[in-house]
Amino acid sequence: MIAARTVRTLVPLLVAALLAGCGHPSGVMTPIALTAATPNTSQVSMLVATTREPSGDPATLFTGERSPKPYLTAVDVSIPPKRAPGTVQWPKRLPPNPATDFAVTSVKEIDTVPQGRAWFRQNIQGGHALVFVHGFNNKYEDSVFRLAQIVHDSGMQATPLLFTWPSRAQLTAYEYDKESTNYSRTALEQALRTLAADPDVKDITILAHSMGTWLTMEALRQMGIRDGHVNGKIHNVILASPDIDIQVFAKQFAEMGTPTPKFTIFVSQDDKALAVSSFITGRVSRLGSIDPSIEPYRSKLEAAGITAIDLTKVKGEGLNHGKFAESPEIVQLIGQRIITGQTLTDSNVSLGQGLTAVVGGTVTTIGNVAATAVAAPVTVLEQPMQAKKRPADETLQGDLKPQPLTQ
Question: How far apart are CA 252 and CA 274, in angstroms?
């Protein structure tokens, strides 16, 4: 429960941090041409699916309002050669300078599924696909640049796809944004089904942040209720700072059916945005702010085969709500380990910093740095999935049974 004094402290901080993040020019989606004089930039190509309403303006492409039909667009982003990992270099003025700024270099509408599959074949990365679902208070361009940053900094070998839902990108639009995730859950489910049906796609990882984790869980829940389980090509689901009621998450997880994908959640007890969200939603704890090392969370997560990575001691920016993307080590952990399905508790992880893991009460180090030299400790709870049926009181699944989904 959050005290009134705490809320009086958190709300101004939330306002200040969000306003501080809005200092960049709007309307950066107009493509610029790269020339021979352009420095050696990096390029990230992505496919963007959205339930946003088209703006009719090439500088913005889409608004925060809801569209009755989804749209698909191929977008290329140029990333400057000199930058701090974990950051997005927004232009101070338009047009952007590719030597110092993130810049859109190509935008192409995709009108049919065959065109989308043709794009995937041209941009294939070993048949691995990453679907990113952004969080609260994001414009179309915000989510495009954030995914480009994650892909570049992680070094992942996967084809990036962005699902961006109608967020008004306003501090006062929390409820509108939440309802927009509900509005978009069937579209995300259909997008995942279409992607999984592509013969060039071998496996899918979903990376969702904040309020986007709710949308992701709802879409997977619908898929599970329709089919009895989540599509087998969806191997990994990563929930970063999940803004979900813990009890609701348990029901969503149960109603997906079995087998489930491998779940990894990133939590942080100093996440100020989730503290405010908890107050707004009736002072109910959010999944992204739990301490996974204490009961009852530890046993429940281990029994369900969910890996919980605690980033509380990892240095963050502002609200401590985006550590998963701002920390170079964590982004690399996602791109080079989790997406490939490797464990996090062996000695073969190459990270710049050692990350402490607690597995079944045993302290380990993730990486090649001794525990005494750890600068950013992380707690990990990891347990292999159990094939046999578990008692209801020891699992997130409880005694729930999948029910037919009415149209």
Answer: 19
What is the rounded CA–CA span in Å between residue 83 and residue 252? 39
Whole-Å CA distances, 29 to 51, 111, 215: 17, 19, 25
Task: Let me know: does 237 contact 206? Beta carbons within 8 Å.
Answer: yes
Q: Kindly state the helix (H) or strand (E) to which residue 298 belongs, with its residue range.
A: helix 297-304
Distance CA(333)–CA(351), nearest Å, equals 8
Q: Is the peptide bond before 377 cis (omega within 30 degrees of 0)?
A: no
pTM: 0.83
Q: 376: closest CA among 398, 396, 353, 405?
A: 353
Count the residues in the chain: 407
Residues 6+ apart with CB under 8 A from 396: 249, 250, 253, 254, 300, 301, 303, 304, 306
Rounded CA-CA distance 209/321 in Å is 9
Question: What does the alpha-carbon distance between residue 94 and residue 339 come to, in Å, rounded to a whole number?
Answer: 35
One-letter identity of residue 87: T
CB 244: neighbour CB atoms within 10 A? Answer: 25
The DSSP symbol for 132 reads E
CB 241 within 8 A of CB 319: no
- Residue 371: the pLDDT is 29
Radius of gyration of the chain, Cα coordinates, nearest whole angstrom: 20
Q: How many other β-carbons are positioned within 10 Å of the β-carbon of residue 125?
A: 14
d(CA 281, CA 206): 25
Give per-10-residue mean pLDDT for the chain (407 aa): 46 48 78 85 97 98 97 97 92 94 97 95 94 95 96 93 96 91 98 96 95 97 97 95 92 95 89 72 76 85 85 73 72 74 50 42 42 41 41 42 42
Query: Rounded CA gap, 362 and 78, in Å?
Result: 43
